[in-house]
Fold this protein.
Amino acid sequence: MQKDKKSGNSSDLRSGTSIKFFDNYLGSIREPFVILDSDLKVVRANHSFYRTFNVKPDETEGLLIYDIGDHQWDIPKLRDLLEDILPRDTIFNDFEVDHDFAGIGPKIMHLNARQIYEQENQTQLILLAMEDVTERESIKRNLEEIVKNRTAELIVAKGEAEKSKQQTEIALHEVKKLKDQLEAEKAYLLEEIKLEYNHEKIIGQSDEFNYVFYKVEQIADTDTNVLVLGETGTGKELVARAIHSLSLRKDRTLVKLNCAALPSNLIESELFGHEKGAFTGAHSKRLGRFEVANGATIFLDEIGELPLELQPKLLRVIQDGEFERLGSSRTIKVDVRIIAATNRNLEEEILKGRFRSDLWYRLNVFPITMPPLREHTEDIPLLADYYVKKISKRLGKTIDLIPVRVMNALKSYHWPGNVRELENVLERAVINSSGPKLHLADKLKKPLMKLRSGQKTLEAVERDYIKQALERSEWKVSGKNGAAEFLGLNRSTLRARMRKLGIVKP
């Protein structure tokens, strides 16, 4: 039955004008050529088709084109052409089919298809010509690949040449610049050598500091999280650096982030990174500090300023070592040691609802408290000697004597800004000194104010204290010699206290 049907389809079309034309002329063309009926069955094929695809007429005519030659023409791209594109466009040229044909191997064929209407038989026919362009396309593709690779090589070479040129220009400029600064640079390098009583630049010999050194050495070679506590300017970052330099992670860079130095809307991106388009201005992907610190140590300064809404994400990193970038659902695993620091009383912050208790428990595994300078004034001579030498060499001065009266003034001052304030006072003193003796530029005989007992509320005392600092700085809040520097406060913290206490510039 099937054979009869096949024969009937062929004979029905045999007398058509297109078939006759094919038999008389097109059958002799060199390229493979077939005629299909409206059902996509083969009506005719030329000798080139049979020879190219290794099939016979009785294996071809009357069969669906997809079925001939053990289904070697059942190609998705061909189906797209015959069933979707051609019915819509009626004609198509150079439709490329890249296929591994059974028996003849991989071929690249260009198909030219055209629909015609056979008026004599009132039938729809499809003329399908095939051009074997395998060799030509292979050469073309190889050439394109060679050109692509060579172009990439040339781009890299050009970039390297430009980079080398820029580096040479920069190097020449630096040589010229450093030539005049050679002696100062040598002095600076000598300054990097550890001094006696200097533990990675943590300077002190008091009992308080010896205890800090002991705690640092005790915890350094573990992966335990550390919480460094202390007032602003006491050297909490130096402790973090000392711990990292003695740890098993010392070959990697210590990654830092000051949680008070950025707006709350940027801290999350800085810590955890973001994908391109995650928010307005995110023009490219960016790795966060935790991702950069993988296998190393991260130092989170001013952890008490971390926004409450970000604290659960930090807690997850501590507990599970994982997070997601902003704009991404992919979980990133990291191995990071955390050293955090704060000048706040986190237990009080917890009671006020500004800090999570579970995060505090995770951070406060091994606390180290940095003593304020007023509690170890016996270290002031060491500190003063270190900073005067450091600053003098940087400024190109020679100061080798700190008079007794100057040292007594330094030791009797209460140092609300701690070591940081001491360094600033000494820098102004070095600038103010014209000879080998150090001359103070600041009056340090009295504290900012004398607190009178029992007559003011704590809030009133704080208001007066801040106002006196502002008056001393001529109402300059931040920057060098600003009230924030005198008070040892972050500028945002000081502005917040001013708003709360109703302090405004007169």
About this structure: Residues 373-447 form a domain with the Helicase, Ruva Protein; domain 3 fold (CATH 1.10.8.60). DSSP finds 20 helices and 14 strands in the chain. The chain has five domains: 2-132, 138-180, 207-370, 373-447, 449-506.
